[in-house]
Write a structure and sequence with these properties.
GO molecular function, one term: tRNA binding
Family: Belongs to the ThiI family.
Strand order of the largest sheet: 2-3-1-4-8-7-5-6
CATH architecture of the largest domain: 3-Layer(aba) Sandwich
Protein name: tRNA sulfurtransferase
CATH topology of the largest domain: Rossmann fold
Number of strands: 19
Radius of gyration: 29 Å
Enzyme class: transferase
CATH class of the largest domain: Alpha Beta
Helix content: 25-40%
Largest sheet: 8 strands, mixed
Shape: elongated
EC number: 2.8.1.4
Length: 490
C-alpha cells in the first residue's frame, strides 16, 4: 500500500519556482511528521502529486496512524490510498474496479480515466471503454458523463503493474508549514485562541505560542495540554517554542491602579507590550490573537484600535469576522473544544462594567500610575519550553478544599470565608453568609497578606468562582494548603 498526495489547489497555480519550493517543503514536512511512525518512510516527488511509500512491514494500526497524520498536514488537498496489483487482463481489472466502486456509483455520473505507461497491445481508451461498460453493467442506475462527472474513476497501468485508488481521504488544505514565515500566537486555552493559531498554521505559518499565566499552575497545565495537542496534531513537522509569562503581578497592579471599566483593555495592552518584547528577542515578525469583532467589550473596534496602538508588530486576527458558533465548530473539528470546556476564561474576571469606547487620553491617564517595573519583572521571569517537552514539564496540581452551598458552609463552623472581589463589586453585592461575616481582602492583596493570617481553614469567594479557585491553587502551590473555595451556589 502507498499514498498519493494531491496538492492544495492554490499551490498548483503558483509560478514554477514557488511551486517547486512549496512542494520541497511539503515533502520534508511529511517525512518529519511520519518519522515517528515509520523511520524509513519514503516520499517521492512527481509534478502533479507526491507519493508516500511506507515500509513494507507496517501493520494495520501503523497504516491507520500514517493516514490520520497525512490528513492533518497543511498543504495537502487529498490523500489517495493506492493499492498495487499485477495486471492480468481487462476482465480481472474490471472485477477489481467494480468491487471498489459498486457502492458509490448508484444514481451518479462518472467517467473512467486510465494513465498508461509502458508497452501494451491496447490503448488507454480501449481499457476505459471496457471498464466503463463493466461499471454500467454492475450499476445500471449510474451513467457515463465525460464532461461533468461526479466521480473520476481513475487507475494507472505501469508496464504490468496496476495501481488502483481504493480510498480518498480529505486533506487539510492550505500551504506547507514554514513557507509563510513564523508568528507568535497569544494562547489562553479557551475556544478562540487555539482556533486562531490553527487557521494560520493551515496557511503555512510556523507558529510559536505565548501564554500569559493569570491562573497559576492549573491554568498553565491546561494551556500546555491544548498547545501540545495543536502542535502534535497539526505542526509536528517543526519544533516550536512555548513561552509562559507569569502575569498575576500585572493583574494585581492593574486592579490597584486602573479604573475598573478600563482594566480589560489595559490588560490586553500590557500583554501586547510584553508579546512584542518576547517576539523581538526571538526575531518573530508578527503576532496572532483570537479576537473577533464585538465578541466581548475589549474587542470593540475602538478598543481593538487602542490595543493595537502599543504594538510594534502586525497583529493577525484570523477570527475577526467569525461567529462564536463557527469558532466552536472549528474547535470541535480540531479537537481543542474539550480543553476549552474545562478551562475557565480568566480574562473575564478582570474588568467590571467595561468601557467600549474609551478615549486615548483616558487610557493614558489610567496607565500613568502603573508601575512598569512589574511588567519588566513578569517578562524577565518568562520560561520557554520546547513543544515536544510540554507535557514532561507541566506543573503538578495540588488539591483544594471546595464548598459549594450555604447549607454545606453552615456545617463547616471552623471555616472563615474571605471575599476576594474588587471593592466596587463587593460593595455593589455584599456577600451574605449563614453565620458570621466574611473577611474582605481583594485578590490583588491576597498573595502578600495570606502568609500573615492566623493558620486556620479559609475559603475564598468571588462572583464567578474563577478567581477564587485560581488564587487557592496559587496559594497551595506556595505551600499554603489551608485555603479552599466557597462557591456560594444556591
Amino acid at each position: 500500500m502507498r499514498y498519493r498526495i494531491k496538492l492544495f489547489g492554490e499551490i498548483t497555480i503558483k509560478s514554477r519556482a514557488v511551486r517547486k519550493e512549496m512542494v520541497r517543503c511539503l515533502r520534508t514536512n511529511i517525512r518529519n511528521t511520519l518519522r515517528g511512525i515509520d523511520p524509513k518512510v519514503r516520499v517521492a516527488d512527481h509534478w502533479d502529486a507526491l507519493e508516500v511509500r511506507p515500509s513494507a512491514h507496517l501493520d494495520d494500526a501503523a497504516h491507520a496512524a500514517v493516514e490520520a497524520s497525512l490528513t492533518r498536514i497543511p498543504g495537502i488537498h487529498e490523500v489517495q490510498v493506492v493499492e498495487a496489483y499485477p495486471f492480468i487482463d481487462f476482465a480481472t481489472t474490471a472485477e477489481r474496479l467494480v468491487a471498489l466502486w459498486r457502492e458509490a456509483l448508484p444514481g451518479r455520473r462518472f467517467r473512467v480515466s486510465v494513465k498508461r505507461r509502458g508497452q501494451h497491445d491496447f490503448g488507454s481508451e480501449d481499457l476505459e471503454r471496457y471498464l466503463g461498460s463493466a461499471l454500467l453493467e454492475a450499476v445500471p442506475s449510474a451513467r457515463v458523463d465525460l464532461r461533468h462527472a461526479e466521480f473520476d474513476v481513475g487507475l494507472e497501468l505501469k508496464d504490468q503493474r496496476l495501481l488502483l485508488v481504493s480510498r480518498r481521504l480529505a486533506g487539510l488544505g492550505g500551504y506547507p508549514l514554514g513557507t509563510q514565515g513564523q508568528a507568535l500566537a497569544l494562547i489562553s486555552g479557551g475556544f478562540d485562541s487555539p482556533v486562531a493559531a490553527w487557521r494560520l498554521l493551515r496557511r503555512g505559518l510556523k507558529t510559536h505560542f505565548l501564554f500569559f499565566n493569570l491562573g497559576g499552575p492549573a491554568h498553565e497545565r491546561g494551556v500546555r495540554e491544548v498547545t501540545h495537542h495543536l502542535w502534535q496534531q497539526y505542526s509536528a513537522s517543526h519544533r516550536v517554542n512555548f513561552i509562559s509569562v507569569p502575569f498575576g503581578g500585572v493583574v494585581d497592579e492593574i486592579q490597584r491602579r486602573v479604573p475598573a471599566g478600563l482594566a480589560g483593555v489595559v490588560l490586553k495592552r500590557m500583554m501586547l507590550r510584553a508579546a512584542n518584547r518576547v517576539a523581538a528577542r526571538a526575531r518573530i515578525p508578527a503576532l496572532i490573537t483570537g479576537d473577533a469583532l464585538a465578541q466581548v467589550s475589549s474587542q470593540s473596534l475602538v478598543n481593538l484600535g487602542l490595543i493595537d496602538a502599543v504594538s510594534e508588530r502586525p497583529i493577525l486576527r484570523p477570527l475577526i469576522a467569525s461567529d462564536k458558533q463557527a469558532i466552536i465548530a472549528d474547535a470541535r473539528r480540531i479537537g481543542t473544544a474539550t480543553y476549552a470546556e474545562r478551562l475557565p476564561e480568566y480574562c473575564g474576571v478582570v474588568s467590571q462594567r467595561p468601557h467600549v469606547r474609551p478615549s486615548p487620553a483616558q487610557l493614558e491617564a489610567a496607565e500613568a500610575d502603573f508601575d512598569q517595573a512589574v511588567l519588566d519583572a513578569a517578562i524577565a521571569a518568562a520560561e520557554m519550553t520546547r513543544s515536544d517537552r510540554l507535557l514532561e514539564s507541566a506543573p503538578v496540581l495540588g488539591e483544594i478544599d471546595e464548598i459549594a452551598t450555604p447549607h454545606t458552609l453552615a456545617e463547616a463552623a471552623d471555616a472563615t470565608v474571605i471575599d476576594i472581589r474588587h471593592p466596587e463589586e463587593r460593595d455593589a453585592a455584599p456577600l451574605r453568609l449563614p453565620h458570621g461575616e466574611p473577611l474582605a481582602i481583594p485578590f490583588f492583596e491576597l498573595a502578600s497578606r495570606a502568609p500573615t493570617l492566623p493558620r486556620r481553614r479559609y475559603l475564598l469567594y468571588c462572583g464567578q468562582g474563577v478567581m477564587s479557585r485560581m488564587q487557592a491553587l496559587h496559594l497551595t502551590d506556595q505551600g499554603l494548603d489551608h485555603f479552599g473555595v466557597y462557591r456560594g451556589e444556591a
